[in-house]
Specification:
Blueprint: H1 9-12, H2 14-24, H3 29-33, E1 39-41, E2 57-71, E3 78-85, E4 90-96, E5 108-118, E6 121-125, E7 128-131, H4 138-143, E8 146-148, H5 157-167, H6 171-177, H7 185-191, H8 196-204, H9 209-239, H10 253-260, H11 267-280, E9 287-292, H12 298-311, E10 315-319, H13 323-337, E11 354-358, H14 364-375, E12 379-384, E13 398-403, H15 411-418, E14 426-431, H16 436-444, E15 448-452, E16 462-468, H17 474-488, E17 492-496, H18 533-542, E18 550-553, H19 559-570, E19 576-579, E20 592-597, H20 605-612, E21 622-628, H21 635-645, H22 649-660, H23 686-701, H24 710-719, H25 723-730
Parallel strand pairs: 4-6, 9-14, 9-15, 10-12, 10-13, 11-12, 13-14, 16-21, 17-19, 17-20, 18-19, 20-21
Antiparallel strand pairs: 1-8, 2-3, 2-5, 3-4, 5-6, 5-7
Length: about 725
């Protein structure tokens, strides 16, 4: 008798089972029945050929319209060309030395292959073919919904369909196979959910779109409830984890920081600060995500929290993604604290602390001194890059970890820093634009969040516009004119390019943090190389920005060179800084008011938002110009227009999700198709997720907890198995 744990080798044979395991990660009957169709087709329907891209591997449904077999001109043998269509458009199937006699005009079939192009026409070379059974009842045959499964080179959609028939040949078979339902009966009754067996049967054998919708709703509950119970159990366990309370001390460094601030805190900063103060003052380790708009003052909030920990005898570590940003943070904090940040020096205040910078480029003597200050506790505030994670970096008493721009660091990296505390330290991670996985985990309930939306008083604000250079080339000339106008008013500008230049093979890639689309301006395969800093800077010096002080900044410079050029820009010795994304996060030059992003379509949504946050950081309004060759009406052009239309980072995160999905909420992947949940959607299922979270809390708070629900407990245990449990524990 088959069970969900039966290996597929006993169902489909060794060869097919191996292909399923290697290419689709399907190993058991459970994996197979949970391998859901990606879409459904009816006879006469096929994927819109205008939507196909060369290189895509797809399955299409169509009718044979024409068959032509002829000898090849330059070698022995024959070539058979078969045209298939759906009534509106067509494509070509090409076979060499193989006539495919069954593919006669009028035959319907499924055709799977990799899309190629010949003389401008889309085609499949030697596709896999599955003719449909014409002996079926005509009405049924014409209206039946055909499941199209995510497939691979060796395992086609119809192989998966046939395999599923071996284990699910009737509703009764589904009832027998899916007898153990992870969603408890009372929960099903409260929310009007069908049984798991019915949902699985309808998902693979629907008669109407409504069947699919009802099955999806039930199957999403499976995913949401199991995930929420897992996360709730983790939160309950974390609440029992002993840490060290770091309460605020009156008259200490935290009060001095407030007194030294050259501006009034916003109401939002005070509210968030009060929440952090209370949590840091408890023994239970805090783990907060601080989401705030670009320029909303997250760093000040973090500094006040760090000062509180220092007052309580602990140390605070600020982890920054780049040396430029780490050095800027260290200078800014030290400059604000003055003598209070130079304890132990001749002009230092003995009641203060030390601000120590630790990066990978420090020379041996400076690194040795910094390590000593961290190890013996003299450094109360330690600012650094990945170097903080290195072996040999030991803290005397690490009480707070602050991670700036958290999407630049993996969970494992944050965990390595957190492990340097004698007891679990408090953790604060910050981001200006919630990236998909972060938003997903927030809504799913794994992170407790705080939000800063209010900008400090006196900020000029930034407006954005798209410069479509193909359709309106004169607009680019006007963009450079606007840069000259801003410089003439005594202000400064950034010009951002996707790469450095000199034909480098490896470079800072704009998509590394945000999943910018690959291919052409609208997904095509033919594309010129991205514009480069060195080339653009030279063109600007000799052309539209001639006479201005133009300098470059990129990742190939030494840390000393980068620091020197940023200092020169900050001190107004440079008018225009042409840079890569090295300036993306945290760089703070209040006098910079305009940014021109070249090849803006090469950057992702969140990254564009981060980049434009570098301007309008002072009292003057800012302007961000997104230069792109993408047609205005293309999907890329529309995406850029949406970015330009809003400065709401949370709205942009949702826009990002529209094209990228949530990613693997229980794995290391930031985005893409491999997802820990198959059907659940952040954009469309927030109410369902919230309801599942409430049910999960009630189930765990009952007298017997999951002991009353062994099927749910087994599903939770399966989710907690292996690497996913380790990752979730660290997250």
């Amino acid at each position: 008798m088959l069970t969900l744990d039966t290996p597929l080798t006993k169902v489909v044979g060794d060869r097919t089972a191996k292909a399923m395991a290697d290419e689709l990660e399907l190993q058991t009957v459970r994996d197979l029945v949970r391998h859901y169709p990606s879409r459904y087709a009816r006879r006469g329907e096929m994927t819109k050929l205008t939507d196909l891209q060369v290189g895509d591997r797809v399955t299409v449904l169509g009718q044979v319209r024409k068959v032509d077999t002829r000898p090849m001109k330059n070698r022995r043998g024959s070539i058979t060309e078969i045209t298939v269509g759906d009534g509106d458009s067509s494509m070509r199937l090409v076979f060499f030395n193989h006539k495919h006699a069954r593919l006669a005009v009028g035959a319907w079939g499924l055709f799977a292959g990799t899309v190629s192009s010949w003389h401008g026409q889309l085609q499949f070379n030697h596709p896999d073919c599955q003719l449909l059974d014409e002996s079926t009842d005509a009405q049924e045959w014409a209206t039946a919904m055909l499941p199209i499964y995510p497939a691979s080179k060796s395992v086609s959609s119809w192989v998966l369909q046939k395999s599923l028939k071996l284990v699910l040949d009737s509703p009764a078979a589904a009832d027998q196979l899916m007898a153990e339902d992870p969603v408890p009966a009372p929960v099903r009754a409260r929310h009007g959910l069908m049984s798991l067996a019915t949902a699985i049967w309808l998902k693979h054998h629907p008669e109407t779109p409504e069947d699919v919708e009802r099955a999806d709703h039930r199957l999403k509950w499976d995913e949401a409830l199991v995930l929420q119970v897992t996360l709730a159990a983790r939160r309950r366990a974390a609440a029992l984890e002993p840490g060290i309370a770091r309460p605020r001390r009156a008259g200490g460094l935290a009060d001095s920081v407030d007194a030294l601030l050259p501006f009034e805190l916003t109401d939002g900063q005070r509210e968030v600060g009060d929440a952090l103060e209370a949590e840091i003052g408890r023994e239970q380790p805090m783990h907060r995500l601080l989401q705030g708009e670009v320029g909303s003052g997250k760093t000040v909030v973090a500094l006040r929290a760090m000062a509180q920990v220092v007052d309580a005898g602990g140390q605070a570590a600020l982890l920054a993604p780049t040396e430029v940003l780490a050095a800027q943070h260290a200078r800014g904090i030290a400059g604000l604290l003055g003598p209070l940040g130079r304890s132990g020096e001749l002009d230092g205040d003995p009641d203060g602390t030390r601000v120590t910078l630790l990066t990978g480029s420090l020379r041996t003597a400076a690194r040795r001194a910094a390590l000593a200050e961290v190890a013996d506790g003299r450094a109360g505030i330690v600012v650094g890059t990945h170097a903080l994670l290195s072996e040999g970096v030991e803290f005397a008493d690490l009480g707070l970890v602050v991670v700036d721009e958290q999407h630049r660091f993996g969970v494992e990296q944050r965990d390595r820093l957190r492990a340097k505390g004698q007891r679990p330290p408090h953790v604060l991670v910050m981001t200006a634009t919630p990236i998909p996985r972060t938003v997903a985990m927030t809504v799913y309930g794994d992170l407790e969040t705080l939000t800063l939306r209010q900008l400090p008083a006196g900020r000029g604000g930034v407006s954005s516009s798209v410069v479509p250079v193909r359709e309106k080339p004169a607009w680019l000339d006007r963009a450079w004119q606007r840069v000259r106008e801003e410089v003439a008013e005594g202000r400064q500008a950034y010009v951002v390019c996707p790469r450095i230049g000199d034909d480098e093979k490896a470079d800072e890639r704009p998509e590394d943090a945000d999943g910018a689309p690959e291919g052409g301006a609208d997904g095509g395969s033919e594309r010129r190389p991205p514009l480069a800093v060195l080339d653009v800077a030279e063109q600007l010096r000799g052309g539209p920005l001639a006479g201005l002080r133009v300098e470059v900044l990129h990742g190939r410079l030494t840390p000393e060179e980068k620091d020197a050029r940023m200092r020169a820009f900050a001190q107004r010795e440079v008018d225009v800084l042409v840079a890569t994304t090295v300036i993306e996060v945290g760089v703070d030059v209040p006098n910079a008011t305009v940014m021109v992003v070249m090849d803006a379509d090469r950057f992702g949504v969140s990254q564009l938002h981060q980049l434009r946050g570098r301007v309008a950081r002072g009292r003057h309004p800012g302007l961000c110009l997104l230069v792109s060759e993408a047609p205005v009406s293309s999907s890329t052009g529309v995406r850029l227009a949406q970015v330009a239309a809003t400065t709401d980072g949370f709205e942009l995160a949702r826009l990002d999700l529209e094209t990228r999905r949530e990613g693997d909420v229980l794995g290391a992947a930031q985005s893409g198709r491999r997802s820990g949940v198959k059907l659940l959607s952040l954009l469309h299922d927030e109410e369902l997720i919230a309801a599942a979270r409430s049910e999960a809390a009630d189930l765990l708070e009952s007298d017997l907890g999951l002991a009353e629900h062994p099927e749910l407990a087994a599903a939770v245990a399966a989710l907690n198995a292996g690497d996913r449990a380790d990752w979730l524990e660290r997250a």
